[in-house]
Amino acid sequence: MATSLIEPERLRRLTDADPRPGDYVLYWMQNAQRAEHNPALEFAARRANELKRPLLVCFGLTDDYPGANLRHYRFMLEGLAEVETSLKRRGIGFVLRAGEPDRVALDLAKDAAAMIVDRGYLRLQKQWRASVAAKLDGACEFTQVEGEVVVPVDLASDKREYAARTIRPKIKKHRDKFLVELSTTAVKKDAGGLSVEGDLDLSDVPALCDSLTLDREVGPVSQFFEGGTTAAKTRLRSLLDDGFESYAAHRNQPQTDDLSYLSMGLHFGQISPVEAALMALERYPEGENTDDFLEELIVRRELTHNYVHFTPRNYDSYDALPDWAQKTLAEHADDEREHVYTRQQLEDAETHDPYWNAAMREMRHTGYMHNYMRMYWGKKILEWTNTPEYGNRITREINDKYFIDGRDPNSYANVNWIYGLHDRPWTERDVFGKTRYMNANGLRRKCDIDGYVEKVDRLVERAESES
């Protein structure tokens, strides 16, 4: 397999400035929370060697990130603890400081010869990077390195794509160029002599979580999913060792466990999508299972990044839906609904539908839900709420509250997919209009849905016994 240092298409200068005298090169880590197969980290290491400086990595931790709670923070901090250990082993410094990430980065940039950051696609992430670039005002070299997608988002397309079928050929045109191993750069100057310290201690993650002011309504699920690169790769290897040969056949079979569980690690940047693809290709170079796996990992996922990138103002709202979807849902907004539930009834899994209740219970107790059931779960909220606008909002809010991988380009795009995004008009029905319809009979016909309910019962029993 070919190796690469950093493809130039991943790089973007955020300031027009040369390096300056400084104590270190600074990598402001935010989206790519890993010490392996991280283009931003390797670019920073190369830059540190060129400037004959040690490399310092910083992470700014705010305990009021919108929509995040104890479940999300515990998973993230477990990963950052591994990052700190791995970086120190390479002679790279790591600092975790409390505060708004942009302010933490700016404070440490005062003594930096040059600064590197990974790329973010969401509104707040873009604001942080723009704020730092503006305040540096050309005084410090500042480079963004994009490593959280296989094909850089601006290279794949220059506009918001209509559907997977429109972005697929554009991504495939470039995909193989970027599916390459990433060379690891050994730093020439050890950061051990730096006197820069953080004010947060990752040696005891539960204690650190206890010290933060967090929303604690939703608790951690480390007994099911531990954070970090090692755990993410272990979950993927488990699929590759036992289950990948059934991946295509079982992808829409929620009673099975032939899954990669990659989404949560990808959300926090704990595993590289390039490395995940290469791991699969090394074991299974071709075939239907590989094709389906890469379709989900690259095409479908990067369609969602295209969506949030080119819909910056309102990607997380109902009015980002295509016109045809808003029109048809408005025409059916007053249709009689056989069942209407409050948000609390939904969160408590108190509906008439045992399959939907099982999906909600899986989400609440494990932080995960089989992808096929996510579609059904969302479609029923559309059907069981008073208006499509309200249904859209609470679908997004419940999604972000319980899923480890919530608050993500995938989340925003996939919630709006329920309401017509990246889809086409279908046969017109009450309530749904021309948006895609799903029902319980379809579940019974296409999968062993009672087996799924039994699986969730076992998961919930385990969660309650270990809580």
Automatic annotation (TrEMBL):
In terms of Pfam families, this protein maps to: DNA_photolyase
- List the InterPro entries: Crypto/Photolyase_FAD-like_sf, Crypto/Photolyase_N_sf, DNA_photolyase_N, Photolyase_Class-2, Rossmann-like_a/b/a_fold
Question: Which cofactors go with this protein?
Answer: (6R)-5,10-methylene-5,6,7,8-tetrahydrofolate
Q: Which Gene3D superfamilies match?
A: 1.25.40.80, DNA Cyclobutane Dipyrimidine Photolyase, subunit A, domain 3, HUPs
Q: In terms of domain of life, where is this protein from?
A: Bacteria
User: Domain Photolyase/cryptochrome alpha/beta: where?
Assistant: 23-153
The entry's protein name is: Photolyase/cryptochrome alpha/beta domain-containing protein
User: What species was this sequence derived from?
Assistant: Alienimonas chondri
